[in-house]
Amino acid sequence: MQYKRILLKLSGEALMGNRTHGIDPTRISDYAKEIKAVAQKGVEIAIVIGGGNIYRGVAGVSNGIDRVQGDYMGMLATVINGLALQSAIESEGVQTRLQTAIKMEQIAEPYIKRKAVRHLEKGRVVIFSGGTGNPFFTTDTAAVLRAAEINADVILKGTRVDGIYSADPEKDKNAVKFDRITYKEVIRKGLRIMDMTAFTLSEDNKLSIIVFDMNTPGNLIKLISGETIGTLVEN
Question: What's the Cα-to-Cα distance from 219 to each of 21, 31, 117, rounded to whole Å?
C-alpha cells in the first residue's frame, strides 16, 4: 500500500445521495464498504465529515441566526453524521471510535490526539466530528488540523467530481482536469479546493491533498494501492 495512515475528508452533502437533505442509507452503506476494503489492507483510517446535509452555519446567517450559534449548530450536525457513519462502518464488522471536539461523553469520546493515534494503531477507524470545536472554522480546516496532528500521510478529499479542473466541469465543457498541481498554481489560478485557512495550513505542514470522486466504487482502494486517481496537490 502506498499510504499507511490517511485522513479521509467527506462532505455532509455526499451522504445525501440523490436526496435534497438528510442521509441516504444506500450511499452511506456504499461508503462503509469502501472504507472496510481499505481497512482490511492494514491502512489506518481517520475520517472528518461535514454537516452540510443537515445544517450549514454560514447559510443560517442569511436567515437571521447569529454566526457563532449557527456554526455550533453545524458542528452538532457533523456529530449526527459521525454517528451514522460509525453505525454503517461497524455493521460491516470494522471497529470504530467516534471522537468529538465538543464534549458529549454519552455518545462519543472527547478528541485526544494520543487516544486517536492509539486507536489507529490498533486498526480502528477513527471518526472526528464537531469540526475544530470553534466557530468560524470549516470542517476542511478541521480535516487538515487533525491530519497534521496524527501525522497522516495524505489527505483524501472525496467529492462528486473526479478531480480539480480549470473551471467547473458541470458548467464548462472545456474545463481541463489537472492530474497534479502545486499549491502555488492553485492560488495563482484561483481554484477553490478548500477554504483558504485549510489550504494554507495544509501547505505549511507539507500535507499532500488528493481530490477524487468518492462515488465511483473502488476508487478509494485504487488510490491506496498507488493508482493515479483524481488530482494530487502538493508543494
Answer: 25, 11, 25
